[in-house]
Amino acid sequence: MTQPPAVELRGITKRFPGVVANRDINLTVARGEIHAIVGENGAGKSTLMKILYGMQRPDEGTIAIDGQHIDLRSPTDAIGAGIGMVHQHFMLADNLTVLENVVLGDEPRRGPRLDIAGARSRINELADTYGFPIDPDVLVEQLGVGERQRVEILKVLYRGARILILDEPTAVLVPQEVDELFRNLAELKREGVTIIFISHKLDEVLSVADTITVIRAGTTVRTVEPSSVTARQLAELMVGSELPTPETRDSTVTDQVELEVRELTVRADDGRTLIDDVGFRIRRGEVLGIAGVEGNGQHELINAILGIDDPAAGTIRLGDQDITHWSTRDRRDAGIGYIPQDRHREGLLLASPLWENVMLGHQARAPYSKGPWIDRKGARQRTIRTIADYDVRTPGPDVPAYALSGGNQQKLIVGREMEASPTLLIAAHPTRGIDVGAQASVWERLRQARADGLAVLLISADLEELIGLSDTLHVIYRGRLVAELDPATVTAEELGSYMTGARAEEARP
Ligand SMILES: Nc1ncnc2c1ncn2[C@@H]1O[C@H](COP(=O)(O)OP(=O)(O)O)[C@@H](O)[C@H]1O
Ligand SMILES: [Mg+2]
């Protein structure tokens, strides 16, 4: 007799007000396989997994685990059925130890007392079996991202999960950590654990998955084996159309310096050094990329260039002007465009209509104002044009920004910034969390900006993006630029080792 599949979802439909997140989805996951689910942002992947984890109830459809129909009313039911989930955003308590986090909500008891020793030996045993080196007594706040993720997985295994769901686990990792995660997953698989793994990074899906299911607009479009498709074909299945080919990369770098940062130092209120003697120049037609693990000074560097924070030392020149002491407003008016890393907090007024969002930061200028008045008609017309030119998919300029998908929000921001004709464009994680279609479009815009002679400062954690777009590539580590690498020859692994500090010292000139 053949084994029943570990998971069988049939005809799953889930509606939210105004959207059908899952539409008659069928998914079969064999026991002991690594099954990847890929799809654009908003395709319905997380929703489907939340249904399998009992966090959301489907409107229609059935779920069978190991051939048994089951009604999952809550995560507790799912855990009881051997299903565990590691979410996109970690849910650990920083001020507790690994052990405390792992047992939290499932405290081991011996009679009325907590059985800490018992828990510790279980954790050690699990860590051993699955090759997860981790100290149960260390505080979670002391762990790096990759280790935290391991704790999350351990927590799920501790509860007896035999089916492990990982929602975009690699989005937060550097290449070395991704490799390590994949080794862990392979080990879990050898021990018979079934893994469902969501991603939109196609090369990694192709390298790690046994089976790949593509979801588009809430529906499963195809289930394939990695050996039968290329990354490009997969991407086309995801977006449902052919992708534009990458442009040839002839250099457009001129010899006119647009931004010059010299000996820049920024300190926190408590005196800690956040940016430490940083200097670089960006010429017109050049993309200068800065790679780094988040929290190494990227944000502070941007704030200093934008005039949000005052530097303790150093100078910043834009074109032929010293802007070190200018206001943010004056710098923006002088030609700095900015695509912020957090669209929701910095880039958009989510509750306001698109036409107000397109004015944001530029409201004192035509076509948004006439004398002291906001020119509503002019702003709406400009927005309609931006929507068309930047392929923002929306019913019109009056819908609120929150109604757009992340990719469309980002295209709107890019449109707004480019329409102001900047001479320097600062792009912070410009394609984070958006789908491959929107990503291709944003990349295209950045290439176009470069070809048009803009100086572009690109800060990103996506190494492929940095390597692909940059003319010059620096690595920031603990507030210092520790290496300058050639994007034409550098590998993601090399970059990763500078980013984690492993090779920082030897590269320092
Ligand atoms: N709790 C919710 N309420 C309303 N709409 C939701 C909710 N969760 C997801 N959606 C919508 O359902 C669609 C699918 O979302 P999601 O499953 O998160 O996609 P993915 O994980 O593939 O990016 C999106 O349009 C999203 O806005
Ligand atoms: Mg998701």
From TrEMBL:
Localization: Cell membrane
SUPFAM superfamilies linked to this entry: P-loop containing nucleoside triphosphate hydrolases
Molecular-function GO terms, alphabetical: ATP binding; ATP hydrolysis activity
Membrane topology per record: Peripheral membrane protein
Main location: membrane
Keywords, comma-separated and alphabetical: ATP-binding, Cell membrane, Membrane, Nucleotide-binding, Repeat, Translocase, Transport
Residue ranges constituting the ABC transporter domain according to the UniProt record: 7-242, 259-503
Listed Gene3D superfamilies: P-loop containing nucleotide triphosphate hydrolases
Record flagged with keyword DNA-binding: no
Name of this chain's protein: ATP-binding cassette domain-containing protein
UniProt keyword Zinc, yes or no: no
GO cellular component: plasma membrane
